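Quick log. Single chain, no ligands specified.
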Amino acid sequence: MKPTFHAHLNVSDLILGVAAMSRCDHGCSHQCHHRARHRPARHCAPPPCAVVHVAAPPPAPMTTTGAYIRIVRASYGAGGHWLDVTDVLQRLVMGQGGLSLNAFGSRRSMNALFGDPIYGKAKRLEFTYEVVGQPKSLTLSEDRKLSLTMADMYHQSVGAHVAVPQEAAHFSLVLLQSSYGIGECRYDVASVLGNMAAQQGGRGVTAFGYFFSPNGCMNKAFGDPAPGMDKDLRVSYIWRTPVMSCSAAEDQQVHLSYAALSPCL
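-> predicted structure:
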C-alpha cells in the first residue's frame, strides 16, 4: 500500500487538516513492511545529532477515543539537517479524524508546516506509522462458531455483500484476554486461542461451530471448567497493523486512509 502524490492542496487546508478521505491507490513511494513483494523500507530516521529543532505543531488534538494512525517517527529535511516533525504530523492526522492523512501537494506546503531546515535544498518527509484499533469484545455460547477476522467483522458491520477494503489485509489480530467457562468457573484460554490464530496466519481465527451444537469442541480445545454446565467463550481483542514506512519528496502529496474500516476498528 503506497500513498499517492498529487498537486492540489493549499497550505491553509493543510494546517486545518481538512482533506478528502479515500482509499489508497498504491501510487506513491510508500513501502509496507509486511508485504514481501515491495522493496525494503527506507530508513527514514536521521541520527539524533542531525535533528536541528522540533517544528511547532498546528492547533489540533493529540488524543482520540477510537482507532487512529499512530505516527511512530517523522523527520523532514535532507543530508545532515533534519527536523523531528513527529508531533506535527500526528496532530495533522488527528485533525483529519485519526484514520486519514491527506496533505501537501502544493509549493512550499511542507516548509510552511514544518519549517525549513536547509534553505534552498530539496528535502524529504520520512515517517513510520501504524494503525491501532480500539479494544473490542465478543461472547459466544458453547461450541458456537468463532469467526474473528477483519473481513467477517467488516461484513457484520456494513453488510455481507460489500467488498472489503484492501487495507484490511494490513491488520493482525491482537488478543487481550480470553476465557472459557461459566460464572466464576472459567479457564484462561488466551494462549490456546492465540496459538490457533497464529496457525491461521495471525490475521484472525475461525474455529468451532460444527454440525451439532453443543458437541464438545470447545471442551476439547480448552478443557471443561464446569462439567455438565452450559459455558461461553469471552474474547477481548484489538486490530493492529505492523509498523510501516512512507517517504515523500518535498511538497509531494501524501495520502493514507483507513477510514473505510472504522466500523470494525
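DSSP finds six helices and 13 strands in the chain.
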